[in-house]
């Protein structure tokens, strides 16, 4: 419903209609092919010559559609806009099943039956104000998409939650002492207990939980983001013991491998600063800096 001179490109991916998930109507087609036909149908109803192309990208969903020209003259723009309104209403009320046709059919053949069938279903006030109404309850995506994966939370707030949860695990009784032989000596380090996400949440104040609930994944996402400190497995939170971490498989070229071996440390070690036993690893083995003098 943009200007007559508008062109478009679309790469269909997730199966969504105008207002919610796309409902399948064809059992003889794959879900992907049926959805592609629906997206092409939208282009035809809107008065475009729809072209299909396959992109050279490493994805299973790489069929795209391009609308570069219209099927009608500019003088018929108001008529087509009325037709678009009827089509939107037909999707909302689910009156018409998606037509079982491939790209390449004529626009007129496709639309005549559709418009006749849904014409009586479209409310008059919506048809008359086609230029201003999209669909009842429709909300377009914001121009600036809000990041809600806990990454935009204030650093002080995140640090406070991490410290509170870590102390909760360390002080849970009985304490879990992990002993590892290093250089002939037994190194005992308190790994604390594991608690379920629910148990951890019960120990956090209401204000903290309220802030986390506004983020996708909430508490679990925040803890997973702080993987230096925590490990979340099967809904349970553990303090990470870096002595048990397997070294990464070395697949890098020799030059890059030598550079990474020099351990450019850009972040301070949380355990070195906050853990009562310090870091479980010696400075040369830890991927994080034991003090500001090691930061690069």
From TrEMBL:
Zinc finger (C3H1-type): 263-293
Entry superkingdom: Eukaryota
The enzyme's E.C. designation: 2.1.1.211
Compartments reported by the entry: Cytoplasm
GO MF annotation: an example: zinc ion binding
Reactions catalysed according to its record: uridine(44) in tRNA(Ser) + S-adenosyl-L-methionine = 2'-O-methyluridine(44) in tRNA(Ser) + S-adenosyl-L-homocysteine + H(+)
PROSITE patterns named in the record: ZF_C3H1
C3H1-type domain mapped to chain residues: 263-293
GO BP terms, alphabetized: tRNA methylation
Main subcellular localisation: cytoplasm
Family, as annotated: Belongs to the TRM44 family.
Functional description taken from the UniProt entry: Adenosyl-L-methionine (AdoMet)-dependent tRNA (uracil-O(2)-)-methyltransferase.
Protein name (record): tRNA (uracil-O(2)-)-methyltransferase
């Amino acid at each position: 419903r943009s200007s007559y001179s508008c062109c478009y490109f679309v790469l269909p991916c997730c199966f969504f209609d105008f207002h919610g998930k796309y409902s399948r109507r064809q059992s003889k087609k794959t879900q992907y092919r049926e959805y592609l036909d629906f997206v092409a149908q939208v282009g035809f109803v809107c008065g475009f010559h729809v072209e299909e192309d396959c992109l050279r990208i490493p994805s299973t969903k790489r069929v795209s559609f391009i609308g570069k020209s219209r099927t009608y003259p500019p003088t018929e723009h108001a008529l087509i806009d009325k037709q678009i309104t009827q089509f939107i209403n037909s999707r909302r009320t689910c009156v018409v099943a998606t037509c079982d046709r491939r790209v390449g059919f004529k626009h007129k053949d496709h639309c005549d039956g559709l418009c006749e069938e849904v014409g009586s279903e479209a409310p008059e006030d919506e048809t008359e104000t086609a230029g201003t109404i999209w669909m009842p309850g429709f909300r377009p995506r914001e121009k600036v998409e809000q990041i809600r994966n806990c990454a935009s939370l204030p650093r002080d707030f995140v640090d406070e939650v991490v410290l509170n949860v870590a102390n909760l695990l360390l002080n849970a009784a009985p304490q879990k002492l992990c002993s590892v032989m290093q250089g002939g000596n037994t190194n005992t380090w308190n790994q604390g207990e594991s608690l379920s996400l629910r148990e951890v949440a019960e120990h956090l104040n209401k204000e903290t939980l309220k802030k986390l609930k506004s983020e996708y994944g909430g508490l679990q996402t925040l803890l997973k983001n702080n993987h230096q400190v925590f490990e979340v497995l099967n809904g349970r939170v553990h303090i990470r013991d870096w002595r048990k971490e397997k070294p990464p498989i070395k697949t890098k070229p020799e030059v890059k491998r030598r550079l990474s071996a020099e351990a450019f440390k850009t972040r301070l070690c949380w355990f070195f600063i906050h853990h009562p036993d310090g870091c479980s690893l010696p400075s040369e083995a830890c991927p994080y800096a034991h003090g500001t003098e090691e930061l690069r």
